[in-house]
């Protein structure tokens, strides 16, 4: 069935803030310290410099984000990326959806991403379908995720520790999407 | 390790040593990280001119939309009448607080609809760029908390 869906390759997007970011030469010592938390300190992105206006929350959230997306053990990386993607699609964050779709494709191949971007959620592998359904329901306001979603995840072999990791990857993107989408545009 | 004072355990209404508490203890970095974020958005060292009372009121307004009364209780109801209106989900008379109320409702309920004009509206109401960033983090933090609490609540019945 999925053979009928053409494989897609997503091009990276560029994010540009609506508000003026912190300029490095004007940054306070606290802002400079905060921006060091970035993975690549050589060139600090406009996104980081925008959020560095409030260095305390930037540092705390980045530490939590890295724990949720990259912690050892538990749910595999591809499934965490799919949770992030599900949240981003519901929240209308094109930039996050693009980044995490490409991450998922890199880890697992383009089949699931191609199906999602072709509007063929029905063609997903069962585990990916259960993850997407849960991500969408948990991202809704108020959340509508229920016992049947959890039962569907458990049926694919996911244990409670892995579901806990999935909940956090979906929830942290409810947060990230609410920064990236309202504070800038991507193209 | 005991997490009895953390906001998510309080929202879940679970005791130390319960099955869900033990599940959470598998990821101590998630628990500690969320608590550090709570302090950073509600009671930061540098408040950027946004008082802890205002921050808690806004958090309570957003938490009201999550359908978890215990989570709402984690944000005390302010005594200031205007902030109490903001916290309760009503529309404050103060124009700046009213603009903030409208913005937070939109971000919490339909974030996909957000656009640059919404930020311009906040700036016109008198909020600075650093304040808008801090408020954005606070709103989004509460939305995160709602979803973690909702999701973990579904794991109260351990795998059969």
TrEMBL record, chain A:
Protein keywords: Oxidoreductase, Peroxidase
InterPro entries: AhpD-like, AhpD_core, CMD-like, Uncharacterised_peroxidase-rel
MF GO annotations: peroxiredoxin activity
Keyword Oxidoreductase belongs to the record: yes
SUPFAM superfamilies to which the protein is assigned, alphabetical: AhpD-like
Alphabetized Gene3D superfamilies for the sequence: AhpD-like
Tagged with keyword Cell membrane: no
Highest taxon listed in the record's lineage: Bacteria
Residues in Carboxymuconolactone decarboxylase-like domain copies: 58-103
Alphabetized Pfam families for the sequence: CMD
PANTHER family, per the entry: CARBOXYMUCONOLACTONE DECARBOXYLASE-LIKE DOMAIN-CONTAINING PROTEIN, SI:CH211-175M2.5
Protein name: Putative peroxidase-related enzyme
Species assigned in the record: Salipiger abyssi
Automatic annotation (TrEMBL), chain B:
Domain of life of the native organism: Bacteria
Gene3D superfamilies recorded: AhpD-like
Family annotation (InterPro entries): AhpD-like
Protein name (Swiss-Prot/TrEMBL): CMD domain protein
Organism: Salipiger abyssi
């Amino acid at each position: 069935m999925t053979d009928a869906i053409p494989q897609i390759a997503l091009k990276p997007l560029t994010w540009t803030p609506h508000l003026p970011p912190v300029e490095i030469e004007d940054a306070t010592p606290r802002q400079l310290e905060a921006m060091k938390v970035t993975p690549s300190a050589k060139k600090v992105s406009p996104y980081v410099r925008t959020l560095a206006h409030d260095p305390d929350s930037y540092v705390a959230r980045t530490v939590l984000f890295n724990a949720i997306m990259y912690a050892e053990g538990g749910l595999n990386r591809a499934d965490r990326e799919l949770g992030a993607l599900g949240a981003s699609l519901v929240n209308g964050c094109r930039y996050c959806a693009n980044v995490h779709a490409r991450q998922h494709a890199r880890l697992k191949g383009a089949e699931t991403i191609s199906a999602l971007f072709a509007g063929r959620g029905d063609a997903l592998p069962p585990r990916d379908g259960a993850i997407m359904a849960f991500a969408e329901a948990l991202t809704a306001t108020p959340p509508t995720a229920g016992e049947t979603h959890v039962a569907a995840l458990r049926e694919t072999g996911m244990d409670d520790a892995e579901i806990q990791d999935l909940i956090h990857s979906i929830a942290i993107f409810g947060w990230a999407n609410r920064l990236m989408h309202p504070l800038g545009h991507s193209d | 390790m005991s997490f009895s004072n953390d906001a998510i355990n309080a929202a879940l209404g679970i005791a130390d040593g319960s099955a869900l508490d033990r599940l959470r203890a598998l990821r101590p970095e998630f628990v500690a990280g969320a608590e550090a974020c709570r302090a950073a958005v509600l009671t930061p060292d540098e408040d950027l001119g946004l008082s802890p009372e205002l921050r808690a009121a806004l958090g309570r307004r957003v938490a009201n939309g999550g359908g978890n009364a215990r989570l709402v209780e984690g944000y005390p109801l302010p005594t200031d009448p205007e902030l109490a209106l903001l916290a309760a989900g009503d529309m404050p008379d103060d124009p700046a607080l009213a603009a903030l109320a409208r913005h937070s409702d939109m971000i919490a309920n339909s974030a996909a609809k957000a656009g640059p004009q919404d930020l311009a509206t906040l700036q016109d109401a008198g909020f600075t760029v650093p304040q808008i960033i801090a408020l954005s983090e606070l709103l989004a933090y509460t939305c995160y908390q709602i979803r973690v609490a909702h999701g973990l609540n579904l794991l109260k019945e351990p795998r059969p």
